[in-house]
Amino acid sequence: MEVSFFKSATLPEQFPPADRPEIAFAGRSNVGKSSLINRLVNSRKLARTSSTPGRTRSINFFSVGKALYLTDLPGYGYAGVPLNVRRDWKKLVETYLKKRINLKAVVVIMDIRRKPGQGDLDLLNWLKAFQIKSIIVLTKVDKLSKSGVNRQIDLISNQLLKESFDQPITFSAKTGQGRQALWKRINEIVKLVE
Ligand SMILES: Nc1nc2c(ncn2[C@@H]2O[C@H](COP(=O)(O)OP(=O)(O)OP(=O)(O)O)[C@@H](O)[C@H]2O)c(=O)[nH]1
Ligand SMILES: [Mg+2]
């Protein structure tokens, strides 16, 4: 299916019509959200990536044929962003999550090398409270050795299970590991045929 950039929104009025299912991607600033989307659809330049945190400031909508929207949400938790800008993002993202009626799930992306931060747990709990499905992904697995990956999976899964969240999917935007598992999960939720 053809994937293309559809629209960038900084205000709710700019969101495209809610005429197809939608999956959003969220996580800390610089965690690798845009890279994950690019890898998922195997297009290197679709979502802009950067080594400068706080790059994605708007909500970016990508269309997958006419079947689906993927949305790249601005990252949270980066202190380098001025407070008033951070407040605007928060408002935009909260409005999005509350009002977007075609939203089927939010992929919550975390760095496998770090333990889930307060921002991640807040988001997960918030989604749960609003009965929005979450898919937890641990990305950048290519940065650790196999034993390092296993150790982190144990550690993070334990912490998430304590708060009764699902088992995470491990992913690498660099190698493509986890791409199929993530599509499978998305397909289960939106019942698409890729
Ligand atoms: N090795 C490796 N690097 C990654 C991976 N995913 C992302 N990166 C790198 O991490 C940096 C941030 O990636 P982005 O995809 O721009 O992160 P983001 O979450 O969209 O960032 P913001 O939009 O600023 O919040 C870039 O330098 C990427 O190349 C991965 O799976 N493996
Ligand atoms: Mg980004």
Keywords:
194 residues; alpha/beta; Rossmann fold; 7-stranded mixed sheet; 5 helices; binds guanosine-5'-triphosphate; binds magnesium ion
Structure described in brief:
This protein has helices at residues 33-40, 83-99, 118-129, 146-162, 179-190; strands spanning 3-9, 22-27, 59-64, 68-72, 103-111, 133-139, 169-170. By secondary structure, the protein is an alpha/beta fold.
Order of helices and strands: EEHEEHEHEHEH
Which parts are unreliable, with pLDDT below 50 for 5 consecutive residues or more?
none
How many strands, which pairing sense, and closed or not: the largest β-sheet?
A: 7 strands, mixed
How many structural units, i.e. domains? 1
Q: Tell me the number of helical segments per DSSP (H or I, 4 or more residues long).
A: 5
Describe this structure in words.
Strand 3 and strand 4 (68-72) form a beta hairpin. This protein has 194 residues and is of the alpha/beta class. The protein has a seven-stranded mixed β-sheet with strand order 1-3-4-2-5-6-7, sandwiched between helices. It has one domain (3-190): P-loop containing nucleotide triphosphate hydrolases (Rossmann fold, 3-Layer(aba) Sandwich). It is 34% helix and 22% strand. The longest helix has 17 residues, at 83-99. The protein is globular. It binds guanosine-5'-triphosphate and magnesium ion. Magnesium ion (MG) binds at residues 33-34, 55-56, 72.
Secondary-structure blueprint of this entry?
Blueprint: E1 3-9, E2 22-27, H1 33-40, E3 59-64, E4 68-72, H2 83-99, E5 103-111, H3 118-129, E6 133-139, H4 146-162, E7 169-170, H5 179-190
Parallel strand pairs: 2-4, 2-5, 5-6, 6-7
Antiparallel strand pairs: 1-3, 3-4
